[in-house]
Amino acid sequence: MSQSVTISFDCLPLRAISRFDVPIDAPPDYEALANRIRRAVETHGLHNSYYLHRASCDFHLTNDPAVGLLSFRFEGVVLTDPDDRRTLHCHLDVELVAETCDWLSEPVVKWFSETVRRAVQSEFDQFIRSGDLDRTVQRMLSLQKDCDAHGGFLGMWL
Length: 158
Hints:
Layout: E1 5-13, H1 28-44, E2 49-60, E3 69-80, E4 87-99, H2 106-130, H3 133-149
Antiparallel strand pairs: 1-2, 2-3, 3-4
């Protein structure tokens, strides 16, 4: 076993959302996700906020893969500093979904639920560092320069 903690998530930058309406024929799961994202935007805003979903965090407490696994599912918002270079807060709903620990107790589950939040914060900082933020910043500055050069309008027929 190579890692004692494994974290995976899909990340949606909330600033990328332009519409909140849900198609009439959308499945109930999609509609529920869209509503949770809408509430996240209402609570946290669009800037420097990211919605993590389809997310999991597994703790491997022993070297035996059949014993000592705590598997959590989580979903929620990560907030970053104004430059998107560091995670400031994680507002996550965390749920234990599987375990192979016959010694597990409720206080331990609560402690690990908080540990999920801290582990995700650390992982998101690594996620930020592994991205090409400097190139993204340069692209955004270039777009802003083009927009300013055209009187604030950039797009088709504007």
